[in-house]
Amino acid sequence: MTRLSDRVSDLADCLAKLLGPDCVVTDPDELRFYSADAYSAGVTAAMALRPASGENLPEAIGQITAAGFAITPRGGGMSYTGGYLPVRAETVTLDLSGLNRILEINEDDRVITVEAGVTWQQIYEALDPLGLRLPFFGTFSGNRATVGGGIANGALFMGTARHGTAAEIVVGLDVVTARGRVIKTGQAAFRNGRPGYRNYGPDLTGLFVHDAGALGVKTRISLRLMHKPAEAGYASFAFGRQDSAVAALSNIARSGVAEEVYLFDPATTRRSLDPASLTRDLARLKAVIKGQGGLAQGLKAGAQMALAGRGFVDKSM
Predict the structure, then answer these.
(1) With contact defined as beta carbons under 8 Å apart, do 152 and 218 qualify?
(2) Which of 191, 220, 279, 291 has the most crowded Cβ, counting Cβ within 10 A?
(3) CA-CA distance, 17 to 63, in Å (whole number)?
(4) pTM of the shown model
């Protein structure tokens, strides 16, 4: 029987010819990095790929599976779900963070199409000058977390209370199957079609979201857009009991009055009150002032934020 190391070497040579030598990773330290997420580590993968484009990627995926290796797609590496952790050594981790182009912003149809390695922050910054936004517009780690990873692993946070999870804004996907076939979902799958609506018969788009990449590798994603709200407001409350806080959070979410609502546990609150976070607070204050649309409004909002202070959260502990 051929040793695993020989099989890895043969596959690495084939993939290097197809994608370029810089795309193939076999260094043991790097492979341990690619085989872990934010909280835990899996079995160390035999190889990692980091393509700089989607060209030849379907053929590469077909070669990997034909050689008997599993594939775990990976985005920004910010996941804590275990979704891309290898479970056996015969695994190739596919780093899609290099597929980071915004392909189209269609203002008329209110659709944006991106490669899977684009971050939520990239999208927000590209849409902001146009007065547009995603309904669900990113995770807490959105400056690094990718859209592909969020769609695959059930991302929620910014905008979820009103607009749902990341999966609910997807209108179409390009997915590469294990054999290297490209499947298009949504309205763009029609000949001469373009992304707009998600369904045309069975909901194939829904089949490939929240699957952790098990059913295919997402390379291109189309998402709904909306007008960016003209103003934003914020409020915070302290609770002495966890069940009271959870009930309030649920009621706010059901009312639809807030785009996102969340709880901070006592440990997180203590970290927020650490004096070492003052620099971060000043950066937030600057962002609040800048985001109010006018200097006078910004200064007023900043003053209110400063007067509110940080110590009041102690009452919740």
Answers:
(1) yes
(2) 220
(3) 12
(4) 0.81
